[in-house]
Amino acid sequence: MYEIRIHSRGGQGGVTAARLLAIAAFRDGKHATACPFYGAERRGAPVVSFIRIDDKPIKVYSQIRTPDLVVVLDSSVMETVDVLQGLKEGGKVLINATHDVTLGDYQTYAVDLTGIALRLNLVVAGSPILNTPVLGAMAKMGIITVESAKSAISEMFSDERNVNAADAAFQELVI
Amino acid sequence: MLTIATGNKAVAAAVKEVKPDVIAAYPITPQTEIVEQMAEYVTNRELESHYIPVESEHSAMAACIGASVTGARTFTATSSHGLLYMHEMVNWAAGARLPIVMANINRAIGPGWNVWCEHTDAFQERDTGWLQVYVGTVQEAYDATLMAFRIAEHNDVLLPVMVNLDGFTLSHIMQSLETVSVGDFVPPIHLPHAIDTANPAGYGTLTGPDEYFKFRWDIERSMRDSVKVIQETEAEFAERFGRSYSFTEEYLCEDADVVVVSMGTLGKESEVAADQLRREGIKAGSMRLRWLRPFPSLDLSGRDIVVIDRDYSFGFGGVIAQSLKAKHRVDPFSVIAGLGGQEVTYDDIASFVKERRTGEEFWFGVNGNV
Amino acid sequence: MTEIPKEEYILKCTSACAGCSSSLILRYVTKAAGEDTVLVIPACCTSVIQGIYPNTAMNVPIYNVAFAAAAACASGMTEAFSKAGKKTNVIVYAGDGGTVDIGIQALSGAFERGTNFLYICYDNEAYGNTGMQRSGSTPTGARTTTTPGGKGHMKKDLAGIVAAHNPPYLATACSAYPKDLFKKVKKALAINGPKFIHVLAPCPPGWRFPSEKTIEMGKLAVKSGMWLLYEREYGKVTINGPSKAAMIKPLPIEDYLSVQGRFKGISKESIAILKSQAEKTAKRIKLEEEGIC
Fold this sequence. Notes:
The complex is a heterotrimer of chains A (about 180), B (about 375) and C (about 290). By secondary structure, chain A is an alpha/beta fold. In chain A, about 30% of the residues lie in helices and about 25% in strands. Chain A has a six-stranded mixed β-sheet, with helices on one face. In chain A, strands 7-8 form a two-stranded antiparallel sheet. Chain B has about 375 residues and is an alpha/beta fold.
């Protein structure tokens, strides 16, 4: 079972990212469970969402304590949230950043999701859309196939800039 | 069709499939996705129901009652305080013998305000005459909702059915879902006592002490008859759609020395705990109770029983533990856990089993960690 | 020149969204009411804005109560304080849902009984706490999660409903005019009997506009005539300055509608209905002010 925790702020689409990832994993023929953790979800507040992916049906419902991968969509949450908490030894971090970052001893991948969104003018109510490009990044990391990522995105969003954003992130992320 | 959906959306999809005539509902966290989805289906004309955005839950149930007694198929959904606010009318619906189906998203009761999972809300309706089923997966939420309409509307039942989903823990998580074409598995509704202006009758009229008790017995008789209807419905569902359900979902119980009894998603988490315990040499099993009413006949003899109650009846005890004691003469280790969304992991459940003490009540997090 | 006290009763670190009208309104309400005040708050955004146990962002006692119960609970509290000879302000602070829908029974009863309390409804025209479903206060044509095609029915005339109970004081206000709100709260609290203030509370996530435009939105509402600022004291109506100006030269209501995502795609018929309602209300209130009714 592969466990992923996504950190973002309310209104940035972190919860939807988890759902998109679950759909993509499902299209890959895997079992997946996506779950937002709801505190009071409101615009601007840190939110956490979870996804589990496995080849077998998933019977665990309790929160992920030791993720294999931590995704940080908004690095400013790190001011108040310990995003690395519980991350397994050998676990990875994927962070939305303009330059390379090192976090603890963990293999950290950086990709400029915000830049990609802004370049494509993928902005809603003042916020750049990060949940569709991050799927492309995760496809590059091998968590889902890029075909399923695009299929999941097209299922949820009609604006094709979302698929383009995922493509761009796939190209840009260096593994 | 194979897809992926949240518990709430699965319920909405099932309701769409059975085409209710009237939907009357009021939003409350964590049920909101259901009412929003139904509104979208109706606005998009994917569903030809009449949708009433009522001003409160009491009115939601009252509107369902008014619609249902004309012979219409009706649906509503609520949670926690909403369910409690409609309590008077929940009673009325059963007494009126109306096959209303309601999804309840189990949530704790304030004060303090708490939007997370607890079963006490629906347990407080356990005396009303409603049938109640508790589901553990998104697929089951869909399947149970389809079956609920058929069971409620069956002439031997004609009682309302509540389908319960754990708040957030199931309502908001996404899992795979296979939707079906229900076809004649849920036949058209025919309410024998529907209002008929050609044959006028008084409904719910003043009923004196020499007659009233007969109506109460009538409800109980139908509740007992519903056992057979539930079994037949679930059997036919298995035949037509390939998924089997019964009064309990049992995992590794046949040779178990100790069985964990619980409801909702804890029943699935308990399966993971059972696997872990088995690896440690403890022959544990998990029994997930699906139907609260009618309360099932169970064979619990010959092994230790650990009950996890995600609820409490103050001054008395955990409702499931006490029900099993009363009905099935067992003396369980009664664990009170998960109230208000308290996190209960498979590790915690394994420790409840390992540290069990027959006949004792243990409040997780209050009396220590075990 | 109104002197606004510096003391803050709403502390930093509320859980409000960026640009929230409610926390702004509450700052001025509590400044006007002062320390000897209890706020009775039914389920609404402010139930969450207060923060999560064991912390609270509020420096006045808050009694949180069930959704339908605010005015009834406040009635009880008022009677108890009165019996004990206390002068503590009892203020219900409720959203539109808990006032005009599920809370209307209790509201009507409390007003009919002449309860000595202040009821403030902050109106973001939807059920904000649960994710923006429609309420009786949602305007025609507005998209909410339960009216995805735009609301067909009309916005309830809450002020009209309350006015029918003949309270000694009834006023409308708007979060974009905090000094006006402050004065109205102060005035209300000096009067004995049931008082009502209906405050328009533009909501960035609900109405779908950027968080920094809240004040601008409130001003647009008033300047376009979509929201009227007035007072009704013992039945006598006074229209307040910004609305007087708006009556002379209103901005087109399209200016107000076009900057909110909730009105995207609104039909011409709905716009006509909104316009006509706003004009009828303005005309009626103006006639009442002039003493012609």
